[in-house]
């Protein structure tokens, strides 16, 4: 988290975008019995200053449940997100002035 934030500051100072690759996400978030949900990783990315991330899709190699995927895409982009358990959003999230992150569907 600290390294990502430092890199984000460097990118801002030098006019660069910071792309966060989703490599190794499956080790952390695909296991049902341990790890953390990608929603948590997405929030950490937004708080640490990333500009865009492979967010996954509802089909393909980064596939996930449709409503859950759309829920964390909203958490990345929107300034205010209402609680909606069907979309995996368990409490209202107000990001105030924290910049959003562009969700990117990777190819392949």
Automatic annotation (TrEMBL):
Keywords, sorted A to Z: Chloroplast, Plastid
Alphabetical list of SUPFAM superfamilies matching this protein: RuBisCo, C-terminal domain
Keyword Plastid annotated: yes
Ribulose bisphosphate carboxylase large subunit C-terminal domain ranges (all copies): 1-108
A Pfam cross-reference name: RuBisCO_large
InterPro entries membership: RuBisCO, RuBisCO_lsu_C, RuBisCO_lsu_C_sf
GO molecular function: magnesium ion binding; ribulose-bisphosphate carboxylase activity
Protein name (record): Ribulose-1,5-bisphosphate carboxylase/oxygenase large subunit
Species the sequence originates in: Campanula rotata
Organism placement in taxonomy: Eukaryota, Viridiplantae, Streptophyta, Embryophyta, Tracheophyta
């Amino acid at each position: 988290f600290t390294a990502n934030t430092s890199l984000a500051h460097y990118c801002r100072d030098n006019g660069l975008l910071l792309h966060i690759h989703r490599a190794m996400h499956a080790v952390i978030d695909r296991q049902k019995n341990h790890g953390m949900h990608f929603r948590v990783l997405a929030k950490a990315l937004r708080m640490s200053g990333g500009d865009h991330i492979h967010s996954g899709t509802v089909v393909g190699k980064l596939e996930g449940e449709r409503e859950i995927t759309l829920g964390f895409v909203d958490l990345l982009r929107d300034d205010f997100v209402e609680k909606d358990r069907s979309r995996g959003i368990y409490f209202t999230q107000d990001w105030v002035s924290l910049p959003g992150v562009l969700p990117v569907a990777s190819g392949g």
